[in-house]
Design goal:
By secondary structure, the chain is of the alpha+beta class. The chain is built from two helices and four strands.
């Protein structure tokens, strides 16, 4: 069994029969590559333990709603840009504060 919980039978089936791609839209409705629509009360195919498409019998591959993926990428970009900038600001602030304290001591 693989890390994803797939057995050799699952993998062999996907290779022999092909796959059915399930794509989620912004309303949480899943469209299959075998031209069927499916909805879940909670979660998606993975969370509901769907391995095979109930409509065509092929192994399911999942494509989550792209906005969520874009959001994750944007978050990584912001983290990559904002954190170094904030570290620089913190260092500059500490430097200015140290100068302020030093000047206050000189005036006493």
């Amino acid at each position: 069994m693989s890390r994803l919980g797939l057995t050799k039978k699952d993998i062999d089936s996907a290779v022999i029969n092909g796959t059915c791609e399930w794509t989620e839209d912004d309303d949480g409705i899943w469209t299959t590559s075998c031209h069927t629509m499916h909805t879940f009360f909670d979660g998606g195919p993975t969370e509901n333990f769907y391995k095979y498409c109930p409509y065509c019998g092929k192994f399911i591959t999942v494509q989550k709603y792209k906005e969520a993926l874009v959001s994750e990428v944007a978050e990584e970009v912001v983290r990559g840009i904002a954190e170094p900038m904030m570290n620089k600001v913190r260092k500059e602030t500490a430097k200015i504060y140290a100068q302020f304290l030093a000047e206050g001591r000189r005036k006493r």
